[in-house]
């Protein structure tokens, strides 16, 4: 059986806060302390805030390009300026829509720049500069404080092609193989699987969202316990980004 | 806390089998009987088998079009014939790849036609004819046998655009709102969410895959317990299919 345990009662995270410690303390306070092989899923927003990856739109002077794109999409020109500065390509524009490829490589709305769960009318949060590195740092901190071996996933909410609605995916990961490659394994009838490569880290991020998204109280992290993952010191969420030229689902 | 409970020891499903009853019995045997508000996630393959949605390729005579596509993609012409008969459009072809839009509307590899977990070298499973209706029937059966109110999701493994690897999604659903529309809800700081529509049924399917995919023993279903969903008699997985003309992530 797998358990998805919400981490309640975490304080509002501010720049410089030690996210690893806040997670360990929250888990202890609610008497579900971190155990070996736990997977800790953290929404990017508190990581971004701890890393100071927030921008006050009041201080942003939009470029001419940003003003034009803002007029076409109906968005705030200052927000568009921030979105552009976080992107390496614009994938799609339409009224109300600005889909970009972020500097990290993710294809998502507004380069992941997010207004929600950030204090202040004009404050927005950016994605962590290097979410895999953020995940590694939080993992090391949790392991240091608890003596347990864990994996950490940083999640974000993405829209997607072909299907309505958003799901949570892994934008940062540390401590586990993000893809389970089942090619060569046999099925129930001895048939060798040909193409099965499961995006475990994305499924874990979606599973965690079931408790994270549930909350009006603001639950920014969850522990997934009882899932057997393959530990790794090198695997990272960036492996989940499919290069455009190899993307057959477009 | 949410629990994901694998259903172990289910028999090999054959045409005409009562999937709802098999689920209820498996849950009772392992002493995790169905409870009110459980979500039962079932891989489509056992539903397809119970509905007789299997084809022996030995009996298939490929058309000329299927032979040409098979030559280009390197696939079995008889398999291609079946894939075409299950599709309403071909979205992409390449060596080793045939991505279609199924008659139900899903964009996926090989129209969801699957060789794995089906007995016999030349036997393939198709998707259920109407997976939402299959989910409804299984739900009604479980409710009839247990007196409990449940939701049922039928899942399949899909590749996707922009990201590597496959995840599980809902191709059939009954008893719950498949999308949680959070527009109008407020965040932690009182900001009204603008665009949040979470594809709950897909996240539940992905969560269940964490126990289903884990198994070499062949676990075809799981119970998700402790997630508060919005009951619905009308919502269905087809709502998760985004019409091509509205697809801004392509």
Keywords:
homodimer; 250 residues; alpha+beta; 60s Ribosomal Protein L30, Chain: A; CofE-like fold; 6-stranded mixed sheet; 3-stranded antiparallel sheet; globular
Task: Write up what this structure looks like.
- Two copies of one chain form a homodimer.
- Chain A has 250 residues and is α+β, with helices and mostly antiparallel strands.
- Chain A folds into two domains: 3-52 and 128-241, 60s Ribosomal Protein L30, Chain: A; 55-125, CofE-like domain (CofE-like fold, Alpha-Beta Complex).
- Helices cover 26% and strands 25% of the residues of chain A.
- In chain A, the strands form four sheets. A six-stranded mixed β-sheet of chain A has the order 1-12-2-8-9-13. Chain A has a three-stranded antiparallel β-sheet with strand order 4-5-6.
- In chain A, a hairpin with an 8-residue loop joins strand 8 (151-158) and strand 9.
- Chain A is globular.
